Every structure is written in C-alpha cells, then in structure tokens.
Amino acid sequence: MALDKNTFKKAYENKYKDIHGDEIENGNNLQRYEALGSLIRDYVSWLWLDTNKRYNKTGEKQIYYFSMEFLLGRLLGDTLMNLGLIDICKEALAELNIDLRDLEELEEDQGLGNGGLGRLAACFLDSMASLGIAGHGCGIRYKYGFFEQKIIDGKQVELSDNWLRQGNVWERRKIEKSEVVKFGGEVKVENIDGRIVFTQINYEPVLAVPYDTPIVGYENNVANTLRLWSAETVSNEFDYSSFSSGEYLKAIEYKNSVESISQVLYPEDSFYEGKILRLKQQYFFVSAGIQSIIRHYKAHGGNIKFLDEKISIHINDTHPTLAIPELMRILLDEEGLGWEEAWRITTNIVSYTNHTILAEALEKWPIDMFKGLLPRIYMIVEEINERFCSDLWNKYIGQWEKISDMAIIADGQVRMANLAVVGSHSVNGVAKLHTEILKKEEMKNLYYFYPNKFNNKTNGITHRRWLLRSNPGLTNLLCNTIGDSFIKHPTDLINFEKFTYDKGVQEELERIKKKNKERLAEKIYKKNGIIVDTSSIFDVQVKRIHGYKRQTLNCLRIMDLYNKLTNNPNLDIHPRTFIFAGKAAPGYYLAKNIIELINAIADKVNNDPLVNKKIKVVFLENYNVSLAEEIIPAADLSEQISTTTKEASGTSNMKFMMNGAITIATLDGANIEISDEVGNNNIFIFGLTARQVLSYIENGGYSSQDIYNKNESIKNVIDDLINGKYSKDREKFRSIYDHLTIFNDEFYVLKDFDSYVETNKKVDSIFKDMYKWQEICGINIAHSGVFSSDRTIQQYATGIWGPELIYKNL
Ligand SMILES: *Cc1c(COP(=O)(O)O)cnc(C)c1O
What percent of the chain has pLDDT over 70? Predict the structure, then answer.
C-alpha cells in the first residue's frame, strides 16, 4: 500500500479525534489501539471491496474452508505487515511518542479454537490470501472463546474468555446477510403434481447473523473473508402477547436458549462428547454457511447445475460434515434437482481432512438425538446410507462384518467420519504416517472401496506470522545472508544451508537466540517470579496437555534428573530450563493432574539450592497464540514426544524448527518429514516405531509393571509420585501413578523412558559445542521452508480444489 509517513500520521490523528472526540495526548493506550485498528480497518475496507468486485467479475472458483475453530490470535501486527505498512506505522506513531508494540499488546487474542486444528485453519486463511486464492473461512462467532487458564496453588482454574469485552475492530456485522436455520419439528411429505415434496414444519427458527473479518494477503492487494455466524432469535423484539399473558421471563429464557448456540467454544481437543448443543452448533454454522454461499452464487447469475465448477467446500475434520446432507437438502428440496445429479454436485464440491485416529475423538451421534433435532437431514443421511450399503452388498456379498464397519448408520448411531468419506471426493490425512495409518488401519475398508479418494497433505504453518513477525532478529539475518526471496518463496530458505557452516553466522544465530531467550526470561520473571539462566538450554514443551502428548514422560525424566543431581550435585550436565505451557480440558482429570505435577516439580526443584543452579522448571499459564509467538523463538530444544502413531501431524514442531530450535522427537506425525528433511544427524530421534506400537495394540505383550520391577530409575520416580516427595498429600498424583502402573501405561511412557534419557545426554554433549549446535539450528531453519502452509495450500489447490487456482497465480 502506497502511503507516506506524514499522510499516515495525519490520518491517524484525525481518526483518533473522530472516534474519541479528544486529543491523542489525553487518551490512554487502549484508545490509541482502537483508533489505529479502526484506521487500518478503513484501509482494508477498500481492498476488501475491490477483491470482492474482482471475484464477482472473474467468476473464479471460490473455496470455502468450513471449520468449527479458527485460532487467529492477534490481527493488528500481521495485517500491518501484509499491507506493507508496518514501518510507516511504527515511525508515524514514534513521532507521536507511541510505541506500536505497546498498542499491539492491548489486542485480545481471537482464541476461537483449542489448538493445532484451529491454528491450522488460521494459517490456511493467511496462505490462501497470500497466494491470491479466493479462499474464505466459515465458522462460529463464539461469544466466549477458549477459556483463560489461571494457575492457583499449582492447579488449573478456568475463567471465561470474554474476548469481545472491549469490542472487536476487525469484524463487521452484516445483519442484511442473515440466514434462518431450522431445528426440530416434523417433515411433511406431499405428492404435488407427481413430485414428492418435503417440507419441514413446526420447526424452531434461529437467525444466523454473519460477522465478517477481512483476511489480508501479503503485499498482493487481496482481502478474503472469514465469515463467523452468531445465533439470534428471529425477531429481536419481545413478543408482546407473551408480555401480556405474563410470560415475559419465558421470552427471555427463549432468547437465551437460542443465543446459547454460539455462546461458547467446547474446550475439548481430540475428544468428543455427544452433547446436543454441539450438534446444534455444527448444523447452525454449516446450514447458514451453505445457504449464504448458494444465495450469493445465484444472485450473481450462477446456474445451480454448474455449482460444482464454481465452488469448493473443504471440511476441517468431521465437525462440519453436515455440509454434505445440507447441500443435498438444498439441491433436492429447494432447487428441485434429482438425487443423482444432486449427489454428483455435492460430492464434487466437498472434500474432507481427517485429523486424528484417536478413538475417543471420533464423532458419532445417537440416532434419536440426530433425528429429533434434524428430521429432514436425517432422512437424507438415511438415504445416502441405504444407497451406499446397497453398493456394498453388491460388491461384498455376504460380508456383513465389513459392510457394517463401513456403514454410515449402525449400532444406533450416525458415524460422521463414514459420512464424510462417502460424501466427498477427497479424503486427506495431515502427514505421511497419519495418511498411511488411515489407509491401512483406521479406514482400511473405506480405503479399499475408494482408493482414489485418499491422499496426503502434510500440514504447514504460515512463515509470515511464525518467522517474519515473531522473530525479526532471525528474519534480518536471513535477509542479510540470502536476500528476501524466501518471503515469497519460503523454500528459498534452503540457500541458508551453506551459511550455516560459517562461524560468523553461527555466532550471529547464537546472539539472536540469546536475545530472544532474554526477552522470555524477563517474561518468566514477571509472570512466575523465577529467575532463569539464559545460558542454560531452554527445553520447551508447549501444547495441549494430553495423555498421548506425554508431558508425563517429560516430567518423569526431570524427576529422574533431580534424583541423580541430589545424589551427585557435581553431575556433569549443562544447565537446563524446562519450560511448559498448555491447557487441559476442564473435564480431563488426568491432564489436570499432570499440570499439578509439573507445578509441584517446579516448586521442589526451583527451591532446592542443591540443584537449582543447574535445573529450573517453569509452567507459563494461559498458553495461546501470542504466548506461543514469544516462547517459540526463544527455544533451544523442541519437545515432540507423543506416543508414536497418535499425533496426526503436529504443527508446533514446524514452528520451532523454523525458529532454529533442534527437535527431540519420536518418529510420529510430521516429525518423520522433519527428520527426512534435515537428516538423522540434525534431529534427536528416540522411542518406539509405529510398527512396534501397532503391534502392541494388536497383539498385546506390553507390561509396564515388568519395566517398573526391573528398572531402578523408573521405579524410583514412579514411587516418588506417591511417597510424599512432591506433595504432602500422597494421594495427589495417584491417578498418574495408577495410569502408569495398574492401568498398564496406555501411552508407553515407561517403555520409551530409557531411550529418552539417553537421547537427552546426546543433546547435552552437542550443546556444549556452541558452534556445532548453531550449525544444526541453521540446517533446521534452511530446511523449514517446505513446512510453510503456502506449500500445503498449493497442494490442496492443485490436488483437491482445482489446479486452475494455482496456475493463474504463476
Ligand atoms: C501451534 C499451536 C498449537 C499446536 O501445537 P502442537 O504442539 O502441534 O499440538 C496449539 N496451540 C497454539 C496456541 C499454537 O500456536
């Protein structure tokens, strides 16, 4: 955007006066932030309008990314950068004695997601806009996002995330583009002139009101749209008849019950509960989204028979799977197409990403609940299922077990993953191993029936947020050595590889990392009152707290190291700071217990003068995107230690790598691709292989009790969980103890313990040689370009949505 500093400054001053009716120097930073946000939004509005006009004119294919979660974080800094205004803005504000960073800090994180899945959706929006693809998001505008985590007495306490308290400058409410979504009632079936007509009657109407946020591409004059839906009553006025008959409170109760649909994000990650409100949320945004897409398409002259040439809908996990029967409903009942044609169009339009093989994450809705809430949709799903099963009967004569495994409706439930596979033309996993497990294990029957639908799209992260924005020091070094072509073509980072052998560059990498560590150390001191040694190894595990992610393994080795250091305070190790952050689902007892354990270890270790010069433990509360942006550039070691086969891809592994941390990892998810990229000598791999884990799962043969009995170090740390060492209340960590022993250690923590400890010794010995360490960090940075979500999105575009999308941009 072509603007000079003085024009910008003038515009900002005017804007401030406009919205606050006062002079800048009389206001506070929050008001200054509001004025800046508002000004930037004005600039974006023109771009937005232009982009939409262009899309309407070219008639190019529109991609809609449906996701129940979008974990955007803050928008001000990234939007400024993408507009090319960051330097001008910084300088103009400086002349007014305002530090841009102080204002950025005041923006609330838009935290409408749980973790990796929601953040992926946000990275994809950034990449689609930056690649000039007409790709838009569709989701829910939760009034309360992912809860705010407080740590009180070592325990997680959940507070509501009232992120809209101070308003949201980025969104625009578009009441005129509202849609009505229908719940419940009955379906009336009539024969009108020889045609069977289905009408939903006696339903409860809910008004879906869209709030649009512009998603600005990187220096390319593109602004796409993230449309989030909010639930309201169809009539906002109170019903006076209710008033007069004394039912005023009932009217308010009704309003609340309708609005509850978009009230709060469910805080479970990789876990599903059959709650009716969740099913309501899913149908609510999917139905509103599809209705508005078709309305827009038709308003611009589109012929419904060619809808699949002009539109793609991608569903992020099974949460938006109702897009399939909802699209069918509209094509059949409202557009009057026949079943075969509607089905061809629907399956051509929809594509599906699977995100997990964890059994507890598979969505299955009880038939009665589904049918009661969505009577017409249920009829359509039944018909899809009947037609599909009849194909199966013809192909697999007498193979009932196979057929019932593949069916969409079975055992009194509707299986969303099966519906998603049957009703879409593409099914992708999110890393090579994950896709292989989907094909050969998890969905093998569906895969052999539809081999051509299945494909892999390894996840990615936007290097604009996760490198350019969060690590300006490193970005500078990269520009000074290899030039700035990597900004538009991230795989050009490979040119950095030859520089990483240069001692001067290694020293520079060390200096940049040290600065980032100092900044984080300051934060740790401010937040937790703990002084950490910035020459220690910053050993970081930040992600959701979950059994399969194995924060327990990390804990046990710290406890083991603590035992060894107390026995021998002169033990030759390089000092380490163990840094954790992450939220546990409020109802996940084991995960919450793990947070307590981490804090108990921190308490013990940090206050023991015998060891606290060598090791420190820190748990930073309320992990979110903004905190991730501060922690990751300061990490030396990236902990990616999930039980092999359980982490579909992971994306923080990629963020760390791109910021020059070295990974210690199991061969799980995208760790495998990272390892393939950098080579064995530039990553620390340990633990069971996928084959070994799958064999244990299939054939048994694992006994954690045996390991406990035979391995003294393990026995000691397990006993430490309940012998009063970490808590006077000896029962406090009983659930972790039981999980690892009497319940046979579901995630093979004890099995991988020894190789993890041994591998950490290697980490230590390499870290002692600063030059060698930084050389490896540099190799990781140089090879991180393929993990930009730009690469991922190009693969989605060419492989799934339509190759023409990319060619036009070359
Ligand atoms: C990247 C990211 C995640 C995903 O982390 P994984 O380690 O891949 O599970 C979760 N939360 C936030 C805030 C992130 O930025």
Answer: 98
Whichever domain contains 508, its CATH number is 3.40.50.2000
Q: What is the mean pLDDT of residues 218-225?
A: 97
Query: Is 607 a domain residue?
Result: yes
Query: How far from the centroid of its chain's Cα atoms is residue 439's Cα?
Result: 23
The active-site residue, picked from 655, 725, 732, 783, is: 655
Nearest residue (CA) to ligand 1, atom 11: 115
Closest CA to 665 of 791, 543, 561: 543
For residues 494 and 783, what is the distance between their CA atoms, to the nearest angstrom? 6
Region 174-188: mean pLDDT is 97
**H, E, C per residue of 639-665:** EECCCCCCCCCCCHHHHHHHCCCEEEE
469 belongs to the catalytic site: no
Does residue 240 carry a pLDDT above 60?
Answer: no
Q: CA-to-CA distance for 640 and 228, rounded, in angstroms?
A: 33
Strand order in the sheet with 684-685: 615-620, 576-581, 537-542, 637-640, 662-665, 684-685
Specify the pLDDT at position 238.
55
Distances 380 to 187, 191, 471 between C-alpha atoms, Å: 12, 18, 50
Cα distances (Å, whole numbers) of residue 771 to 354, 387, 502, 505, 657: 41, 64, 9, 9, 17
- The active-site residue out of 141, 329, 453, 544 is 544
- Mean pLDDT on 78-90: 97
Closest atom of ligand 1 to CA, residue 625? 13
Can 174 be counted among the known catalytic residues?
no
Q: Give yes or no for residue 115 CB within 6 A of ligand 1.
A: yes
d(CA 723, CA 717): 10
* pTM passes above 0.90: yes
Active site (annotated) includes residue 655? yes
Residue 665 lies in a domain: yes
Which position among 61, 314, 549, 604 bears the catalytic label?
A: 549
DSSP state letter for 439: I
* Residue 114 · residue 132 · CB < 8 Å: no
Q: 320 CB under 6 A from ligand 1?
A: no
Ligand 1 atom at shortest distance from the alpha carbon of 71: 13
Per-residue confidence at 270, pLDDT binned at 50, 70, 90? confident
- Is 281 among the domain residues? no
* CB-ligand 1 contact for 139 (6 Å cutoff): no
Catalytic residue among 651, 663, 666, 792: 651
Structural domain including 560 reads 463-782
Whether ligand 1 lies within 6 angstroms of the CB of 650 is answered as: yes
Cβ–ligand 1 distance for 651 under 6 Å, the answer yes
513 lines ligand 1 (CB under 6 A): no
| Whether 808 is catalytic | no
321 is catalytic: no
Number of domains in the chain: 1
- Tell me what the pLDDT averaged over the chain comes to: 96
Residue 810, pLDDT above cutoff 50: no
> Do the domain assignments include residue 513?
yes
Burial call 519-541: b when 16+ CB within 10 Å, e when fewer: ebbebbeeebebebbbebbbbbb
